[in-house]
Amino acid sequence: MIHGSVDRRSTSLSHATVRLFRLVNRATNRAVADFGLSGEQAHVLIALWEMGPVTIGVLQRELALSSATLTGAIDRMEKQGLVRRVPSPEDRRASLIEPRVPAATKAKILAAVDRSDADCFTAISAPERATLLRLIGACASDLEARGDSARPPREARSDAASARPRSR
C-alpha cells in the first residue's frame, strides 16, 4: 500500500503490460542489433514478410503505431535499403511498402527474433504462452473494435478542454 491506497504498480494490468513491452522491446533490440535493425524495424519487416506489400495505413493499423512514428521508421528503413515504396496498382495516389531484405538475412532475422521471444518468456510454459498470446490478442481486438483507445472518453476530453485557461 502506498499513501493508504493499493500499490498500482502491482495491480495494474496497463502498468504490467507497458513494463513487459519495454523489457521485451529491449531484448528484441539487442537480438537484431547485429543486423543494423531496431526491434521496431524488425517487427515492420516481419509484418511485411507475412502480409506482403501494403500501404503505410495498413501497416500502421497492424503495428498500432502512429502515422508519424511509422513514416519516420519507413523513411529510415528505405535509406538503409530494407524497404522501398512502390506505386499501388489499385490507387495511383498511394504507395505500397515492400521489404527488400535478402532471403538469407531474412532467415537470420527471423531466427534472432524467435530466440529472443523464447528467451523473454522462459518463466512460463508453452501452454501458458499460448494462453497469454490468446488473451493479449483478445484485449487488442476489443480495443481496436472500440476505436482509438489512446483517446480519453469524450466526457474526459471536454472536461479537460473546459479546464484549460482561455487565451485572449
Question: Topology, pairings included?
Answer:
Layout: H1 8-11, H2 13-32, H3 39-51, H4 56-63, H5 67-79, E1 83-87, E2 95-99, H6 103-120, H7 126-145, H8 154-163
Antiparallel strand pairs: 1-2
Helix pairs in contact: 2-6
Q: Which fold name corresponds to the CATH topology? A: Arc Repressor Mutant, subunit A
Please count the beta strands (DSSP E, at least 2 residues each). Answer: 2
- Tell me the domain tally: 1
Write down the secondary-structure element order: HHHHHEEHHH
Which band does the percent of strand residues land in? 5-15%
Give the spatial strand order of the biggest sheet: 1-2
In DSSP terms (H or I, runs of 4 or more residues), the helix count works out at 8
CATH architecture label name: Orthogonal Bundle
Mean pLDDT: 87
Q: State the helical fraction.
A: 55-70%
Jot down its keywords.
8 helices, mainly alpha, disordered C terminus, two-stranded antiparallel sheet, globular, Arc Repressor Mutant, subunit A
In brief:
This protein is mostly helical and about 170 residues long.
